[in-house]
Amino acid sequence: xxxxxxxxxxxxxxxxxxxxxxxxxxxxxxxxxxxxxxxxxxxxxxxxxxxxxxxxxxxxxxxxxxxxxxxxxxxxxxxxxxxxxxxxxxxxxxxxxxxxxxxxxxxxxxxxxxxxxxxxxxxxxxxxxxxxxxxxxxxxxxxxxxxxxxxxxxxxxxxxxxxxxxxxxxxxxxxxxxxxxxxxxxxxxxxxxxxxxxxxxxxxxxxxxxxxxxxxxxxxxxxxxxxxxxxxxxxxxxxxxxxxxxxxxxxxxxxxxxxxxxxxxxxxxxxxxxxxxxxxxxxx
Amino acid sequence: xxxxxxxxxxxxxxxxxxxxxxxxxxxxxxxxxxxxxxxxxxxxxxxxxxxxxxxxxxxxxxxxxxxxxxxxxxxxxxxxxxxxxxxxxxxxxxxxxxxxxxxxxxxxxxxxxxxxxxxxxxxxxxxxxxxxxxxxxxxxxxxxxxxxxxxxxxxxxxxxxxxxxxxxxxxxxxxxxxxxxxxxxxxxxxxxxxxxxxxxxxxxxxxxxxxxxxxxxxxxxxxxxxxxxxxxxxxxxxxxxxxxxxxxxxxxxxxxxxxxxxxxxxxxxxxxxxxxxxxxxxxxxxxxxxxxxxxxxxxxxxxxxxxxxxxxxxxxxxxxxxxxxxxxxxxxxxxxxxxxxxxxxxxxxxxxxxxxxxxxxxxxxxxxxxxxxxxxxxxxxxxxxxxxxxxxxxxxxxxxxxxxxxxxxxxxxxxxxxxxxxxxxxxxxxxxxxxxxxxxxxxxxxxxxxxxxxxxxxxxxxxxxxxxxxxxxxxxxxxxxxxxxxxxxxxxxxxxxxxxxxxxxxxxxxxxxxxxxxxxxxxxxxxxxxxxxxxxxxxxxxxxxxxxxxxxxxxxxxxxxxxxxxxxxxxxxxxxxxxxxxxxxxxxxxxxxxxxxxxxxxxxxxxxxxxxxxxxxxxxxxxxxxxxxxxxxxxxxxxxxxxxxxxxxxxxxxxxxxxxxxxxxxxxxxxxxxxxxxxxxxxxxxxxxxxxxxxxxxxxxxxxxxxxxxxxxxxxxxxxxxxxxxxxxxxxxxxxxxxxxxxxxxxxxxxxxxxxxxxxxxxxxxxxxxxxxxxxxxxxxxxxxxxxxxxxxxxxxxxxxxxx
Amino acid sequence: xxxxxxxxxxxxxxxxxxxxxxxxxxxxxxxxxxxxxxxxxxxxxxxxxxxxxxxxxxxxxxxxxxxxxxxxxxxxxxxxxxxxxxxxxxxxxxxxxxxxxxxxxxxxxxxxxxxxxxxxxxxxxxxxxxxxxxxxxxxxxxxxxxxxxxxxxxxxxxxxxxx
Lengths: 284, 804, 163
Known about the structure:
- The structure holds 3 protein chains of 3 kinds.
- Chain A is an alpha+beta fold.
- Chain A has 3 domains: 7-53, 2-Layer Sandwich (Uridine Diphospho-n-acetylenolpyruvylglucosamine Reductase, domain 2), CATH 3.30.43; 58-173, 2-Layer Sandwich (Uridine Diphospho-n-acetylenolpyruvylglucosamine Reductase, domain 3), CATH 3.30.465.10; 178-283, 2-Layer Sandwich (Enolase-like, domain 1).
- Helix content of chain A is 36%, strand content 27%.
- Chain A has 12 helices and 14 strands.
- The relative contact order of chain A is 0.12.
- Chain B is an alpha+beta fold.
- Chain B folds into 3 domains: 2-34 and 502-645, Aldehyde oxidase/xanthine dehydrogenase, molybdopterin binding domain (Aldehyde Oxidoreductase, domain 4, 2-Layer Sandwich); 37-139 and 214-262 and 269-302, Aldehyde Oxidoreductase, domain 3; 305-486 and 650-799, Aldehyde Oxidoreductase, domain 4 (2-Layer Sandwich), CATH 3.30.365.
- Helix content of chain B is 29%, strand content 26%.
- Chain B has 20 helices and 35 strands.
- In chain B, helix 16 crosses helix 17 and helix 18 (687-706) packs across helix 19 (759-776).
- The longest helix of chain B is centred in the last third of the chain and has 28 residues, at 567-594.
- Chain B is globular.
- By secondary structure, chain C is of the alpha+beta class.
- Chain C folds into 2 domains: 4-79, Ubiquitin-like (UB roll); 88-158, Orthogonal Bundle (DNA polymerase, domain 1), CATH 1.10.150.
- In chain C, a hairpin with a 2-residue loop joins strand 3 (51-54) and strand 4.
- In chain C, helix 2 (88-95) packs across helix 5.
- The chains are: A alpha+beta, B alpha+beta, C alpha+beta.
- Chains in contact: A-B, A-C, B-C.
- Chains B and C meet through helix 2 and helix 18 of B and helix 1, helix 2, helix 3, helix 4 and helix 5 of C.
């Protein structure tokens, strides 16, 4: 498995990176951790004449928590997300989900930016970011813009990001309430058969806010407005959860693959969503 | 000083039989100093890479190599046309068939080798592969062996009109052979008259040994001296030399085959692959060394698969559960070419061990081999030839019979075991089991796991499930297996005509250390450690003073290699026998030195002593020295021996396994709560190594039973060609195993050893599978096919109405 | 394509190699620098046989271009111990039969080294999840886990003794 030839660029700053992108357009791709892109290049399923390695761009690194807002640079690795104690205090679901991604070596390299930007429906972070109502900052020659995670994904590998833009940071509010990331996979290193991120806030035993988002159950992550609507205002008892699961299942469209046929995936999705809601509610 | 050392200390000092000697191989491996095939780099070496077929069945209209040849750094592009003048475009398989080295007119499976590109480095070679233009005309694809037998589509046009195959008549153009063992009419009669008959059809899915190191070779043709050196991932280097000589016409003495360190084999490295042949041809053509190392996708798509047996059984019994007859039919999917690695006379390997550990008076087996548009192979993945299939079959049939009889499967096994006093036991399908004590092993295993307690707990769980208090079921998997290993007696076992003996050659050095060379080759089993232990006990020289060498055909004696757990039964026996020759000569030398008659000295640990006068002795060190520096009347100088051992029979290791598994009915997720493995491999050479083999074999069994498969779609595309989809468990998915043992030595093996490397795989697969099936037995499940991945378990539960 | 000079520190020695951008780190280490300890197993970042330590991280070097390692500090199995003074992990794998064919072993030990640097006193579960990026086909992991836990205990004991 040997990739085709390409030119390697390693800009020191965003301006440099954007300049290469502007020059080569479609022929250029940015490289973050590389653990999605490099295997595709080795299999010659991705043709990348110009590779732009972002590792030297300091502006893309780091986790900041201020004013109730969490901002994570796109080049922050999953390992760093797991290790950051302040982040864990502010949004513990990040560590819970990150630990379920791939394996330790991949998490040292894999970045949050790469995970959300590449549009692979199997990636865990997009659904999680939809659950958290994260905002993605995109930077291009025209300047910066912000796109909500919930509006970012169009289809498998198709996103709101223009070819000449770079996703630079992700921000979301400090989390309150209960959370859970449930994932069923065949083995370490696998994508989810079904996964679900849930965040639930309760006041006096009543759900005041709920957010249910799912991974690998459609060609994009699925944020279920309907499931959220079912849960808000309830005590989140068995019947409420059942109704929320039913609503969430209406929103998914899984396809058959080696993990199993559609009927199985839908059934497992129901179980995983249920468990995620139950666990999140128990922590709320 | 001599007086201060006790006899026990002298025994311990040898690090001989029965001690957990630390492995001598590990120093280099832990420091990254192993020497595997891809570590070999020779001056001027070129790299080879294959153009492979994207189609499972297609005619090749044209191959244009111009663009590839025009690329700077490309030396050659070989196609079948280039190999044809050398008669190397096809090669014989170990199973009496032939196989294309490079596609000759058509391709028959996805990933088939079409052209071989030779270039300066692996990068240029990969680029050139992309530049070879092949025009294909797609043909209808046949992936189902049953449909293949009814299809008008002729897969093997080269065999058209040939009604006689290597193993008798062919019934259809996609049929390879029918192999029958036992009494069909008598078996049918017994089954027709029986009180109880259980029938089941089961599919043992296609999988792959997938050692961590893929296959590869480096060929170096020295045109000046006319010598070919071939390094490669060979489990049978001597046979490779013979095959290479027969194919190439180069005399065998001019070929040196070397197996360097091998990164796991498990059967994958027994066969001869097109890459080996192409690297040789390319080196002959270019005059420089050529390396070929496959990548993981190539490994999974094209080198030998394992299993792919559709097995239909009927088992009959009395009302009390005494088995009276067994009927087994197999439809064996061999893919595009019959490239099974079995002894010549056994086209379905030792599938006729399928009566298992049970005293079954009447039995019949028939196997039909079939061609399909899948990769060739059919190797024994961590088992003796087709024994995993046989043991899986009988251990499932026993469970199904237990359901039919409404009996406990442990008890059903117990009342049908071959009894200790029946050994040597003649099986209905033609084997003579050398030894066994099944009841003792079974009772020990059931007691160790508190079988009755487990059944009680399971019953409670079922009740709780029915009350809606839990969604997790509990399965108790049982298996009792008998392996048949150590192929084998030359009178009925050969590979391409080479009798399946093995060998050991020993030289004792003047200062009392030694080197022994064997015809086998370790792929992780630790031969350098354990064979030295056998020898230490035989000749009284410490294992630490004995070097073991294997794998270089210029220095090692001819042997048939390492697979089918044959190293200890065959080469281990050769080692003991060669050691005994050394000892016989040493006895004469000792008697001369002690000035007594030969019969008046006896061997004692590390010395010969005068009978009745233990203070008068000569150590093996003293004897070795004397062998080189004294003129002893009637005795040649030196101390060397060689033994070629033709085993009188196979050995029959056995074991009793129990698995306890929790199953989430809603998701199909399983949790192996406990696994107990009792193995009886006869005399135990190194308990530490045995235990390691058992852990490893069980883990490969877990993989196969629970998810590992080579799956194809209807177009013959491989769906599981990377480790994303092909299941190799990590530390996270694997439980801790409890190991145990009994010892029933083989009566015909010089040290009573039977071989162990494959037992855990053979016994493990049905044990894991039976645990899954057992969990659903209370809800009416008879059988569900492996692999038991989440969705298939879910499907089984769903079909039983457990999701309503 | 433009070849470049890649400067990196490998096992404490500064090395300079000339490589095309597409050359993978594993092949540069193995074929240009002679570090044949790390191996190629799956090529899709699943098996971990190619694991090396880069700037304090365990990395699968089959899924990294050498160019990305410009300026990096790399440790391979060859840099962990010497024939005269094996690393505690190397001793422990020998002692507890933590290897068979040896092909996964360099990656396994290199990864275990980083795991213990980060978590000097792991539980069995920590070890199993922490080693989940490394596949072994021979051992069934039981003795690998034992080797790592034993090495951790030994390293902790010698740290205590030193204090």
